[in-house]
Automatic annotation (TrEMBL):
<keyword id="KW-0479">Metal-binding</keyword>
<dbReference type="InterPro" id="IPR036236">
    <property type="entry name" value="Znf_C2H2_sf"/>
</dbReference>
<dbReference type="GO" id="GO:0000122">
    <property type="term" value="P:negative regulation of transcription by RNA polymerase II"/>
</dbReference>
<dbReference type="InterPro" id="IPR013087">
    <property type="entry name" value="Znf_C2H2_type"/>
</dbReference>
<dbReference type="GO" id="GO:0005634">
    <property type="term" value="C:nucleus"/>
</dbReference>
<feature type="domain" description="C2H2-type">
    <location>
        <begin position="33"/>
        <end position="60"/>
    </location>
</feature>
<keyword id="KW-0862">Zinc</keyword>
<feature type="domain" description="C2H2-type">
    <location>
        <begin position="229"/>
        <end position="256"/>
    </location>
</feature>
<feature type="domain" description="C2H2-type">
    <location>
        <begin position="89"/>
        <end position="116"/>
    </location>
</feature>
<dbReference type="Pfam" id="PF00096">
    <property type="entry name" value="zf-C2H2"/>
</dbReference>
<feature type="domain" description="C2H2-type">
    <location>
        <begin position="61"/>
        <end position="88"/>
    </location>
</feature>
<dbReference type="Pfam" id="PF13465">
    <property type="entry name" value="zf-H2C2_2"/>
</dbReference>
<keyword id="KW-0804">Transcription</keyword>
<feature type="domain" description="C2H2-type">
    <location>
        <begin position="5"/>
        <end position="32"/>
    </location>
</feature>
<protein>
    <recommendedName>
        <fullName>C2H2-type domain-containing protein</fullName>
    </recommendedName>
</protein>
<feature type="domain" description="C2H2-type">
    <location>
        <begin position="257"/>
        <end position="284"/>
    </location>
</feature>
<keyword id="KW-0677">Repeat</keyword>
Amino acid sequence: MEGSFQCHYCAKPFSQKIHLDNHLSFHTGEKPYPCSQCSKSFVYKGSLKNHMVTHTEERPHQCRQCDKTFSYKNSLKYHMMTHSGEKPYQCSQCNKTFTINANLKRHFMTHSREKPYHCTQCSQTFSLHSILKRHLRIHTGEKPYHCRKCDKAFSQSHNLKSHMMAHAGDKPHQCLQCEKAFTQKYDLTIHQRTHTGEKPHKCSQCDKAFSNISNLIGHSRRHTGEKPYQCSQCDKAFSQNKGLNYHLKKHTGDKPHQCFQCEKAFTVKNELTIHQRTHTGEKPYKCSQCDKAFSQSSGLNYHLNKHTGEKPYPTAV
């Protein structure tokens, strides 16, 4: 009988038990088909079979806009969307769009009111077990995705993919207002907001707004006091992962990024880049409302407040 097998998580009906079992994996995060050559695992046997081809050297499908090659025609098709920016699958409940239907389906489940997966270390709840599993890495510090070319490791696979593109020097997404280029289109979108001043992510507890969602999440923790990123070498904790990473370098004293024009050295590359502008005079952050320009995005953001009349810091009385 059609629809006789029902998912007890979301009530979706299925005509066959095997289809229900496959669907349940999206809720539980179970991936029973592991790859024998790398750490990846898959929900479907067919997906594993397709993945195994990536370990062979055969990649007959080549992109005409860059040098990338692919094992499957479909993979090339999805890659081409990174050049065109095409995202044909739109969520009916919000404005998000996706390159593939599977990502839309996974996203759609986040709109479900039911969030049965609770984090035991904080108050957050999740609609999918796989999302909870990723979230727990914030508390444990686990980074299962290792780069084969250097000693870096990542908590999420997409961060490793972006990092690998940096090794290859592949930065297909270039800013039209300055010379910066990025491995991912999302990073370009965020960067472009430093030129436009756009801040679409608004805090629900105060009037602050941010150019990207991660900064909003970090800011929201100032209201809640949550600091999930704990230093393993002292009792300090941080609201954002980047704060912890920066702090850890103070324990090691490691300053690997050295200026070639003077003797100064820095813990992170971004600090070196900003410092080098004192030598070059470069000011890539231009105000869209006047002819002023700045060496740092923070300088531009502070300046834009003068145009809007916003006073981000309280005046002493």
